[in-house]
Specification:
Blueprint (H helix, E strand, L loop, with lengths): L2 E7 L3 E6 L4 E5 L5 E5 L1 H15 L8 E7 L3 E7 L5 E5 H9 L8 H11 L18 H4 L1
Parallel strand pairs: 1-5, 2-6, 5-7
Antiparallel strand pairs: 2-3, 3-4
Length: 139
């Protein structure tokens, strides 16, 4: 259905913001307010960077998704930009099931992969091994 660029936002409390503002507000307990950079604008930069590194594709193929945790509440979130979604994690499954259309064919997907594969970096998650004390170390 397209190229979906997802930004995950870790926020709790009430969320207030617009896709056109520079900052959004996270209102916490006792009206404590925390400002944070507009995640729609941040994700838009990611989409532009991705577009610059892949072959020519129409703009309508790229979709921006801002994903918040379930511990927040959208009090006043305004998004009027096309191809932008602001969702909570619990809405992701329903949203993805509703995606329709074949904006990309198998050749498009392979071409995108080939143009990005040298730029991808996967890091192994390191898990610290817990040191177990032996009887000799305890004594």
């Amino acid at each position: 259905s397209g190229v979906h660029v997802i930004t995950d936002v870790d926020a709790k409390g009430w969320i207030v913001g617009s896709d056109r503002s520079i900052e959004w507000v996270n209102i916490l307990y006792k009206n404590k307010k925390e400002m944070f950079n507009n995640p729609v604008l941040i994700n838009r930069r990611y989409v532009y960077a991705l577009r610059d590194n892949v072959v020519e594709l129409p703009d309508n193929v790229f979709h921006s998704v801002v994903l918040f945790g379930n511990d927040c509440s959208f009090q006043k979130v305004e998004v009027s930009t096309d191809n932008v979604e602001v969702l909570k994690q619990k809405e992701l499954k329903l949203w993805s099931a509703a995606l329709a259309g074949d904006a990309l064919n198998a050749d498009d997907i392979n071409t995108i992969y080939e143009s990005l594969k040298d730029k991808m970096e996967f890091k192994k998650k390191l898990v610290a091994k817990k040191k177990v004390k032996t009887k000799k170390q305890i004594a």
